[in-house]
């Protein structure tokens, strides 16, 4: 009985998500999850709602729960990785995506995503030392100005 109810809530949540009614979708999906806490697809859809809402920490949290239920849930690792990337943490994002790649080593989307993120990280790392140097020079100049007065 509760499985059918969970499925009904899941379906309602999916429809509301497709309509763009994120709060309503979340309400139904959370009810579904409460009735069927072992359904990783429900976790994935809840994560998708949080991703659309821009609540990346919630995405990470729900993905961690999904991974506890099914340690081979590729979407759990991939979505968690993207949430880290959106938070600006490329290292954790790449790490999580590499976990997904261990499960699906032939997944070209994940391979390409990791490759692009590694390139992005390299570019960022090349730019940061230059910015640090400029910042340090500016600090030195300001210190000299303050010493004069």
UniProtKB/TrEMBL annotation:
Per the UniProt record, one Pfam family is TPR_1
Arranged from A to Z, the UniProt key words for this protein are: Repeat, TPR repeat
Q: Gene3D superfamilies this protein is in?
A: Tetratricopeptide repeat domain
Listed PANTHER family: TETRATRICOPEPTIDE REPEAT PROTEIN 6, UDP-N-ACETYLGLUCOSAMINE--PEPTIDE N-ACETYLGLUCOSAMINYLTRANSFERASE SPINDLY-RELATED
- What name goes with this protein? Uncharacterized protein
């Amino acid at each position: 009985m509760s499985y059918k109810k969970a499925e009904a809530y899941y379906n309602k949540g999916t429809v509301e998500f497709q309509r763009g009614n994120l709060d309503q979708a979340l309400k139904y999906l959370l009810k579904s999850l409460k009735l069927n806490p072992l359904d990783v697809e429900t976790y994935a859809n809840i994560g998708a709602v949080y991703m659309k809402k821009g609540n990346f920490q919630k995405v990470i949290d729900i993905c961690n729960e999904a991974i506890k239920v099914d340690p081979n849930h590729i979407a759990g690792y991939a979505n968690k990785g993207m949430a880290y990337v959106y938070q600006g943490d490329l290292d954790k994002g790449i790490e999580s995506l590499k976990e997904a790649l261990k499960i699906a080593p032939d997944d070209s989307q994940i391979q390409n995503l990791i490759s692009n993120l590694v390139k992005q990280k390299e570019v960022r790392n090349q730019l940061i030392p230059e910015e640090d140097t400029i910042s340090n020079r500016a600090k030195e100049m300001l210190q000299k100005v303050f010493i004069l007065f």
